[in-house]
Fold:
Amino acid sequence: MLGDYRITGRRANEIAADIERAVGAGRLQPGAALPPLRDLAGELGVNPNTVAAAYRLLRDRGVIETAGRKGSRVRPRPVTTPRDQVRIPVPPGARDLSLGNPDPALLPALAPALAVAAATADRTPVLYGAPPADPALLALAGASFRADGAPEGELAVCSGSLDAIERVLTTQLRPGDTVAVEDPGWGSLLDLLPALGLRPVPVLLDDEGPLPASLAEALAAGARAAVVTVRAQNPTGAALTARRAAELRAVLAAHPETVLIEDDHGHGMVDQPYESLAVGPGGVLTLARWAVVRSASKAYGPDLRLAVMCGEPDVVARVLGRQRLDTGWVSLLLQHTVAELWRTDAAPAGRVAAAYRERRAALLAALAQRGIRAHGESGLNVWVPVPEESGVVAALVQHGWVVAPGARFRLQSPPGVRITVAELSPAEATRLAADLASVLGSAVGHSRLS
Structure:
């Protein structure tokens, strides 16, 4: 069952740590079955309850999954092997279109904003006990949320979208709860959930966002929370339309206890309007517990680890309370910098969004001319369903293109590849489409996301 590897330990935490080290070192492969409780307890000379506690620790850590009488197995993607760490080598001269980064040429210059922020810090150094949020940043964020029709709520500053999402989930849910997530969806979120001891429930989507029937099925099956990307969905580029948002609000209204997190990481670099699921026409709230998260990473740079969250007051209070117990606050120097960028950015969001739209459109049109249907309504990426991922990815490398295999983003949805178009010129798009058509051969019409 375990090959040459033998589990060791006398206490639950020792047994769990030994197994997790073996998974991280590759001595226990994904899918490997663990010994039944009583068998391992007998081998180690401990009480079966000790082994049961160790297995619970591993399950809550996202290392293993249990299936009743079928026993316990190492998860297909344990949290010790994050999806985005599995990289495709980039040969010399090849174009790397796999990372999902924005175009550096479309990011604002940081030096002027950093200088203003540093001067502010010199005049008034931030000390312990200072307010945890920059009033100027909160004012800009609040005005942005109101202008877009987001629900009225309290604000919090977190260290990026994933940090904000994690804080909402950990303060609202318990290990073992299920969360409805898009499939295909953001790989980091799909890794985060098992690390928190939460179980993802896949929700299918198309270019307009999650499919209402699929979300309804996930909620009916017991999902206690739902994470929805409102635009620039990663990896497919899906963006909520007004029609789809209304349909999804109706689904959520039938499950008012659901915790809703809207991920609007595309704010500032897309031109599709924001469509809220938390509030409908007339400002009527869909749910009692909700949060909308907006990140600075795509519009201003990935190293600016900052997101502003607008949420229901109790949700935000719990997030801030937990934050005070660990990081304390997000650097005020960073907050001042982002506020200054937001206030003075010389590259308006409309121009940035138009550039990305042009690059997406060029690749989508070139693919369509060759009978290949792809998806990319908004954002930095185009998703291309393919019959089989590894062969397509390997063949494209031979042509000088490195793309991301869809396995990084999928739970149960069909295969695909993600192509980041942020720096792709129209001429390159034509060559890439021709090479992809050559790789796919006669396979055409791969148009479904699910």
Summary: The mean pLDDT is 92.
